[in-house]
Amino acid sequence: LASGEPRGPHAVMRGVHVLVALLATMTTLAVHSIAYTYFLATGKWAAEVVRVYQLPEWINHQAKKNKRKAFRFEFWGMTAVAVAAWLGAGADAQGLNPLWHLGGAGVALMFNLGAFAAIYATIVAQHRLLSEVKTQADQLRAARPAKSVAAPDPS
After folding, report:
1. pTM of the predicted structure, to 2 decimals
2. Which residues of 95-115 are buried (b: 16+ CB within 10 A; e: fewer)?
3. Closest-CA residue to 47 (of 37, 35, 58, 36)
4. Are the beta carbons of 24 and 108 closer than 8 angstroms?
5. CA distances from 60 to 2, 4, 65, 67 (A)
6. Contact at 8 Å (CB) between 62 and 146?
7. Rounded Cα distance, 25 and 22, in Å
8. From the CB of residue 88, how many other CB atoms can be counted at a distance below 10 Å?
9. What three-state secondary structure class fits 150?
10. Whole-angstrom Cα distance, residue 128 to residue 46?
């Protein structure tokens, strides 16, 4: 036990609070990062399919629009969680009024709940766009004449 660690009846709950906060912070950051990576990857895939199959350019623009729309919520959601964690560290180690941490955590929670809904709607829109792109690409691929492969001569 380090000499600076608090002791007494509240020490256990403080430790639980810190661990739960750390888990919540890392999970939130991971989820936002995964969502942003999804938009990066699917946007690149859509651009490649548009290029190869010579599909309309609006598909590319819509994929970029979806990525930009989601990025605002992802960035500010991660920022809000980081600020709440920073305020918590300040309240714990520097004597900052804990109400700042409470307020920051409340704002981060509310913003991230709203961001979840907005990002989910954008993921659904991106999925619909990608389904349309795949359908168009499959139709173009099916319309191409199949290359005949001659059977090997048995003799």
Report:
1. 0.82
2. eeeeebbeebbeebeebbeeb
3. 58
4. no
5. 56, 56, 9, 11
6. no
7. 5
8. 22
9. coil
10. 12
Q: Distance between CA 114 and CA 74 in Å, rounded?
A: 11
Q: How far is the C-alpha of 85 from the C-alpha of 64, rounded, in Å? A: 31
pLDDT digits (tens, 9 = 90+) for 117-139: 999 999 999 999 999 999 999 99
User: Above 90 in pLDDT, residue 8?
Assistant: no
Closest CA to 31 of 65, 70, 85: 70
Chain center to CA of 111: 14
**Cα gap 88→67, rounded to integer Å:** 31
Q: What is the largest CA-CA distance in the chain?
A: 91
Q: Are 118 and 77 in contact (CB under 8 A)?
A: no
Residue in this structure with the two tokens 């739960």, named with its chain if needed:
20
Here the tokens at position 68 are 């930009």
